[in-house]
């Protein structure tokens, strides 16, 4: 039987006072990137999947595929987001080597902040405008140093590959240390092992154990970057 007028009015009044349901925040490229970084920061790069990102966003895969095509797109977004934080100096011919070291030091530190994320930069053709901005900036510094374009191009590739591999290795070491892995030895332990080797079979390793195990912080990183830049002679690379 139909509701009485008083009941109908009460129902309309209750409906009018009910708070509207909150609208879901739309899925955007920025939100996808935020979620991907959150996964890497809290769980490591190995945990990063499209499905994991959708779980963080509280949505389904189809919502992401409206903005990305594959896991490789997530990699591109991640590296682009990190590159957006890189400060590029005005190329200075008088101190271009230090500028190269400073920029790659920034990249290294950002990679180490997110365990394993440097893997996203391996075997990837960069398309993100921020990633290209950083490559353009480093290339400009090398050219300002009087390096021939072909040599500068290959140096850019080699330096970028080195910082990526360096950060990845450091992340692996950190991960193994956190899990109590016996593979990671202290400098003192490693030096003791080298010093205890057979002098007949390993004369140089035994004699120079201190040199082979030396270096604190990022000393070896700075050494390698400087080694590359100090040997960038004018002219095309061998075999070009």
If you had to describe this structure to a student in words, what would you say it looks like?
By secondary structure, the chain is mainly alpha-helical. 61% of the residues lie in helices and 0% in strands. Helix 2 (29-43) packs across helix 5 (71-83), helix 6 (96-113) packs parallel to helix 8 and helix 8 (149-178) packs antiparallel against helix 12 (219-230). The chain is flat. The chain starts with a helix and ends in a 10-residue tail after the last helix. The model has no long low-confidence stretch (mean pLDDT 87).
Radius of gyration: 27 Å
What characteristic shape results from the CA principal axes?
A: flat
What can be said about the biggest beta sheet?
none
Average pLDDT level:
87
Short description:
The protein has 240 residues and is mostly helical.
What does the secondary structure layout of this molecule look like, with pairings?
Elements: H1 5-17, H2 29-43, H3 50-57, H4 61-64, H5 71-83, H6 96-113, H7 129-144, H8 149-178, H9 187-195, H10 203-207, H11 209-212, H12 219-230
Helix pairs in contact: 2-3, 2-5, 5-7, 6-7, 6-8, 6-12, 7-8, 8-12
């Amino acid at each position: 039987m139909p509701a009485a007028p008083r009941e109908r009015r009460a129902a309309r009044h209750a409906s009018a006072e009910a708070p509207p349901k909150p609208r879901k925040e739309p899925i955007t490229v920025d939100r996808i990137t935020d979620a991907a970084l959150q996964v890497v920061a809290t769980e490591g790069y190995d945990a990063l999947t499209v499905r994991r990102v959708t779980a963080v966003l509280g949505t389904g895969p189809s919502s992401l595929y409206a903005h990305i095509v594959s896991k490789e797109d997530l990699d591109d977004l991640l590296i682009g987001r990190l590159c957006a934080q890189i400060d590029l100096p005005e190329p200075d011919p008088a101190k271009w080597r230090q500028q190269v070291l400073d920029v790659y030091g920034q990249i290294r530190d950002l990679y180490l902040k997110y365990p394993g994320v440097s893997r996203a930069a391996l075997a990837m053709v960069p398309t993100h405008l921020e990633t290209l901005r950083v490559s353009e900036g480093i290339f400009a510094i090398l050219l300002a140093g009087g390096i021939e374009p072909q040599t500068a191009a290959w140096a850019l590739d080699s330096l970028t590959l080195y910082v990526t591999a360096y950060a990845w290795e450091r992340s692996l070491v950190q991960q193994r240390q956190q899990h109590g892995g016996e593979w990671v030895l202290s400098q003192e332990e490693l030096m003791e092992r080298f010093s205890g080797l057979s002098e007949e079979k390993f004369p140089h390793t035994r004699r120079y154990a201190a040199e082979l195990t030396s270096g604190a912080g990022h000393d070896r990183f700075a050494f390698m970057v400087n080694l590359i830049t100090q040997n960038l002679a004018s002219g095309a690379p061998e075999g070009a």
